[in-house]
Design a protein that fits this description.
By secondary structure, the chain is mainly beta. The strands form two sheets. Strands 1, 2, 4, 5, 6, 7, 11 and 12 form an eight-stranded antiparallel β-sheet that branches. The radius of gyration is 16 Å and the shape is globular.
Length: 211
């Protein structure tokens, strides 16, 4: 891989410890954020408050409902950060990780230190289906301040020591967006597909570079 990523096996293990950038151990906690409704199987990871017409990853998944998990790192200074977010597709063990790419990026040869990722400008990341992105655009078209409703939905969960929200965007289809804080905030973050022994996607993880 062009870039090293967090040890996801440890990141999504309650009570595990991982060394941060200064060598201090952080304790991990895994929190469920609900299920993502994915009728098209075309998954998007983006900043839902600032992204314009976000594109889905080239790798598609079977349509369905999938759990979303946040990996929370309790740091030695008392701070807590979202280290990673996972869309779990199956319980099969992951045998390899591959950087997630958009259509058109699949055959691009990356040099050492180069990567594909998505830009966050509002401190928020998300997972959503392509149909949810269409519904979100419709919400923004009808209400230019709809981002404030999304922010309010995230802040409503702050009592759980994490700003996140699982918001239904279309009552008929049930498509939704699952949003969460993004590590240290704004930046460009890489997502990875985890593949099982049969080379089927078992999960999708965004690494927020806390470690």
């Amino acid at each position: 891989m062009p870039m090293e990523h967090t040890d996801f096996a440890l990141a999504f293990q309650d009570g595990a410890t991982i060394a941060d950038g200064q060598g201090t151990l952080a304790t991990m906690r895994v929190q469920s954020l609900g299920e993502l409704v994915a009728p098209s199987g075309q998954i998007i990871a983006c900043d839902p408050l600032t992204a314009i017409e976000p594109a889905p990853f080239a790798q598609h998944i079977a349509p369905g409902r999938y759990p979303v998990l946040a990996s929370l790192a309790a740091l030695a200074n008392g701070d807590q950060r979202v280290a990673c977010a996972m869309l779990r597709l199956s319980d099969a063990p992951v045998v390899r990780w591959e950087m997630a790419r958009l259509k058109g990026q699949e055959d691009v040869a990356l040099q050492t230190g180069e990567f594909f990722g998505y830009s966050i400008d509002a401190g928020v990341g998300c997972f959503m289906d392509a149909q949810a992105a269409t519904a979100l655009d419709a919400r923004y078209d009808s209400d230019e301040s709809y981002d404030e409703a999304l922010i309010d939905a995230m802040e409503a969960n702050r009592a759980q020591q994490l700003d996140y929200a699982n918001v239904t965007l279309d009552e008929v289809s049930g498509v939704n967006v699952v949003m969460f804080e993004s590590g240290w905030g704004d930046g460009v973050y890489i997502s990875y597909w985890g593949f099982d022994g049969d080379d089927a996607p078992a999960c999708l993880v965004t690494d927020f570079s806390v470690f």
